[in-house]
Every structure is written in C-alpha cells, then in structure tokens.
Design brief:
six-stranded mixed sheet; Hydroxyacylglutathione hydrolase; 9 helices; Clx_II_MBL; Metallo-beta-lactamase, Chain A; hydrolase activity; globular; 256 residues; Glyoxalase_II_hydrolase; 14 strands; single chain; metal-binding; alpha/beta
Length: 256
C-alpha cells in the first residue's frame, strides 16, 4: 500500500508533514513544529496521529512533542545522538536503522552539520525524503554545530538517492535560496527554470515543496561542491570538495 503525504504550513515558515500509511492507517507527523496546524491537518484528513519522527533537536522542530504525545499517545522516534536534547523520545535511531510505519518503511540516514546528530527519513517505495533542515530546495541548513567535511558527506548521501525522490524539507526558503544560487551560478539553465517555477508558485500562494531530487542535483549549489565550476569560482581548484562546500556555505551566510 502507498504512503500518502499531507503538506501544510506551521509557525512562520516551517513546513508540517503528515505521512499516512494507507494500508494500516498509521500516521506520523514528521517533526513537531506546532501543535495546532498538526491537529487541523489530522482533522481535515480524518487521520489519527500514531507516530512522530524527529530529525533534530531545534525548538521549531520539537516544540509540539509534549502536547501531541499527551493528546494522542503517539510514539516519538528521534536521533540517538541528540537524546539529551529532545524530551519525550520513545525510540532512538541512528544511521542504517529502519523505522516502520505500518506497512511503510523508512531508512534512517545521518546528515550531521546543521546539528551534530541530524538524521533524515527516506521511504524508498514511494521515494519520499523527509530531510528536516539538512537539505532545502536550492539550499541546505546553516552549519550550526558540525564541520564542512561531515556535512558534505551527508549531503552526498542524499544526492545518491534516486533521481525521482521527492524532497520534503523543513522550511519554505526556496525563493531566498534561488536568489543566492542564481548569484553564483547565473548560467545554469536548470536553476533558472526552477527559480522561475518557485517565483510562480509563491506568487500563486502555493508551496514550492516537494522538490524533485534530479532537479536539485543539477541546480542546488550545495549538492555540487565537487563541480569544478565552483572550485574555480572560489579559487579552490586544488582543494577538497568539503572546502568548496564551506566556501559556498559562507557565501550564503553573508548573502543579502
């Protein structure tokens, strides 16, 4: 049976997600940014929350855990490496583990950098990737805790997923990310097409997610740090791609 994904807005610019296993009726919230939008989405769909899958410890991804767990008795799964920073975890997982939601299976992938223990959940049958703040459309999360090498390796793991993978990220940052990407890669035709699509979607009041991973592989500069173009752009022709990634990340941090 298939996995059904409901996408909705939460907080100021978070995405909220419900992942519903059609075969068994089990439903997971991917992260817990805000209780009321999650309740409303459940009510609208007629689903009951059974699980919460957490990607990392930041408050805008875990704030609603206590309220949702109290109301629904949901089982909360999250990164073992961040156990001490996330209250209410029932199951700890790490890279290589599998999480079952009824008949749906999620693979846990390590993506350290935004936080040291950040993980993502990939559902291979339907090719759904719930990536928190590790990867955004045309961007990636700020490197708050990690180092360039491990963060780049985590992004390469995501880049290696099938082209047809649908990317469900934690925030609606696509328009800002497009402006930065175009500033450093103005000749990229795939990027220009995606940027125009994002502009049209936002103008129509629509979400820019899910993104298609094949488009991200071609257009997202943070997934292309090993492209010689960027090494030359930053004068790092002989450097490791992780150093190029760090240069792109620094440029984005300073971009306005």
């Amino acid at each position: 049976m298939s996995l059904i994904v409901d996408v909705f807005a939460a907080r100021q610019d978070n995405f909220g997600y419900l992942a519903h296993d059609a075969g068994t009726g089990r439903t997971a919230a991917i992260d817990a940014p805000e209780a009321e939008p999650i309740r409303s989405a459940l009510l609208h769909r007629g689903w009951r929350l059974t699980d919460i899958l957490i990607t990392h410890h930041h408050g805008d991804h875990i704030e609603a855990i206590p309220a949702l767990k109290s109301e629904f008795g949901a089982t909360v799964t999250g990164p073992a490496a961040e156990e001490g920073k996330i209250g209410g975890l029932d199951r700890l997982v790490e890279a290589g583990d599998t999480v079952l939601l009824g008949e749906s299976r999620f693979e846990v992938i390590a993506t350290p950098g935004h936080t040291l223990g950040h993980i993502v959940y990939f559902e291979p049958e339907g090719r759904h990737l719930f990536c928190g703040d590790a990867l955004f459309s045309l961007g990636c999360g700020r490197m708050f805790e990690g180092m360039p090498g491990p963060m780049w390796q985590g992004l390469k793991r995501l880049r290696a997923l099938p082209d047809e993978t649908l990317v469900y990220c934690g925030h609606e940052y696509s328009a800002a990310n497009a402006r930065f990407a175009l500033s450093i890669d103005p000749g990229n035709e795939t990027l220009k097409t995606r940027a125009a699509e994002i502009e049209a979607l936002r103008a129509a009041g629509k979400f820019t997610i899910p993104a298609q991973l094949d488009i991200e592989k071609a257009a997202n500069p943070f997934l292309r740090a090993d492209d010689p173009y960027f090494a030359q752009l930053y004068g790092l022709e002989d450097a490791d791609p992780a150093e190029v990634f760090a240069a792109i990340r620094k440029a984005k941090d300073n971009f306005s």
